[in-house]
Amino acid sequence: MSASITVVGNIASDPEIKFFDSGTAFVNFAVAVGSRKKDDNGNWVDGDTSWFDCTVFDAQAENFANSLNKGTRVVVTGTQTRSKYIDKEGNERTAYNIRVDEVAVSLKWATAEVTRNPKKEGGSDNAPRQTSAPKKANEAFFGDEPF
User: Fold this and answer.
1) I need a labelling partner for 106 at 20 to 30 A (CA). Which of 8, 29, 70, 143 fits?
2) Rounded distance between C-alpha atoms, residue 17 and residue 26, angstroms
3) CATH of the domain at 42
4) Tens-place pLDDT, residues 74-104
């Protein structure tokens, strides 16, 4: 059973698109979700920030990398996954990631202009065409074990 999750926050760094050997595009990115509240004097006080590691694939990854940058407020919906790894000290750790189904710009404090991509030749999706040689991913980014 997988856990569905939606987060709203800001992109933590400029996206960098990468490609698997198969040519599938992906972007790993983090979303920072902060909280603010008013104190007893009515002043806004920043609370804790939560960080969510996310991965988006295929044409959506290319659209993401070509459209968004650090600081953009986004709404991310996806499936939370987990993987286990061994840290530098030899301890087993668990990493959590959101495998992105949809990502959109939040319109709460911004406007957006939408440009549809042309359809691929012989296909029905709106995937952009790859225009440069693919970069290779260094390592796997997260496991497929559902959370």
Assistant:
1) 143
2) 6
3) 2.40.50.140
4) 999 999 998 888 999 999 988 889 999 999 9
Gap between the Cα atoms of 37 and 25, Å rounded: 39
Contacts 24+ apart (CB under 8 A), 113-122: 117/59, 117/63
User: Is 137 contained in some domain?
Assistant: no
What is the pTM assigned to this prediction?
0.70
8 CB contacts (<8 Å, ≥6 apart)? 33, 73, 74, 75, 76, 106
pLDDT, position 133: 40
How far is it, in rounded angstroms, from Cα 57 to Cα 60?
6
- DSSP labels for the chain? --EEEEEEEEE-S----EE-TT--EEEEEEEEEEEEEE-TTS-EEEEEEEEEEEEEEHHHHHHHHHH--TT-EEEEEEEEEEEEEE-TTS-EEEEEEEEEEEEEE--SS------PPPPPTT-SS-PPPP-SPPPBPSS-----EE-
- Asked whether residue 144 is domain-assigned, the answer is no
Copy the structure tokens of residue 13: 């760094």
Number of domains in the chain: 1
Domain range holding 55? 3-123
